[in-house]
Amino acid sequence: MKISDILKKKKLLVSFETFPPKPSADESTYKSIVDATLELSSLNPDFMSVTYGAGGGTSSNTVDIAAKINNEGSVPALAHLTCISSTREQVAIAVQKLKESGIKNILALRGDIPQNSDFIPPNHYKYAYDLIKELKETTDFCIGAACNPEGHPESTNKDVDLDNLKKKADLGCSFLTTQMFFDNNMLYNFLYRAQLKGITQPVFAGIMPVTNAAQIKRMMALSNAFMPRELLHLIEKFGSSNEAMKQAGIDYATHQIIDLISNDVRGIHIYTMNKPDVARSIMNNISSIVSSQNDSTE
Ligand code: FAD
């Protein structure tokens, strides 16, 4: 099912993000990721997305896992697709595989530019804009795009970044999904500025439950996300105990989500890190709140 059609039926959507096994994964790692993915699908999110290696490295696993979510998990799948390291032929092959697997939704991304000095970009695509334009002109997929409430790290300023987001949105994206953020005011400020620019697409707010202190430090370095003092304090206080950090992280994410829903966001996108127990706890914490928003629309 297309996400654009789900958006027509429901006031509030909740989605999960998963990642596929690396191409080098052995059989047991592959199986444990498939099991986690199917367990996540049993929690009935509105759709589940599967990430894609910027270098195209996980492409076949992205399609495989997305197809499993769609066909075995009975949850609509959103396949991520990056373009910066790909040729037009490689993108065409990936798109054909997605079509053949019955996937209806693509999150069209540029991907991060590989930092290894021997990387020579094929230069077939410069921005996500180029990929979205091609997909809109040549396919019938429902297309989503990424956005950054705190500005993309390569952008000189947030206003220019929003102008670039508007160019993508105007190609006919059905929705936008945000980078993770930990301070809801960052999102509210972004939504306000996006509205002023005339960006009207539904926005999925990206929520990363902080359940592992070491992992979040790595992610912070990559994403530049602002960490509120309250969250830093939780990490400092509970980061050395896995179980305590998990509980505190689930609680923090739950509070963020409830506040977002109470301020009428259209979608919550949970970066699950393939952890069904974390996603289950959050879904239990918000189940009545989510139902209360959709009861009148379903
Ligand atoms: P773009 O929209 O192309 O933007 C990149 C930069 O170029 C920005 O600074 C922007 O302001 C500028 N720009 C954009 N368009 C123009 C234009 N027309 N003219 C001039 N400047 C322009 N990475 C992966 O490798 N795999 C994934 O699966 C993946 N999933 C993601 C999911 C989400 C929800 C998000 C938010 C990010 C994801 N990423 C993923 C990371 C993403 O690839 C990086 O953030 C990447 O650096 C930018 O991708 P983009 O699609 O936002 O790029």
Give an overview of the whole structure.
It contains eleven helices and eight strands. With 298 residues, it is α/β, with parallel strands linked by helices. It has a single domain, classed as Alpha-Beta Barrel (TIM Barrel), CATH 3.20.20.220. Strands 1-2-3-4-5-6-7-8 form an eight-stranded parallel beta barrel, surrounded by seven helices. Helix 3 (59-71) links the parallel strand 2 (47-50) and strand 3 (77-82). Helix 9 (229-238) packs antiparallel against helix 10. The longest helix is centred in the last third of the chain and has 21 residues, at 242-262. The two termini are 16 Å apart. The mean pLDDT is 94. Residues 51-52, 54, 80, 82, 107, 109-112, 127-129, 146, 152, 154-155, 161, 164, 167-168, 177, 179, 206 line the site of flavin-adenine dinucleotide (FAD). Flavin-adenine dinucleotide (FAD) binds next to strand 3, strand 4, helix 5 and helix 6.
Question: Characteristics of this structure?
Answer:
alpha/beta; TIM Barrel; binds flavin-adenine dinucleotide
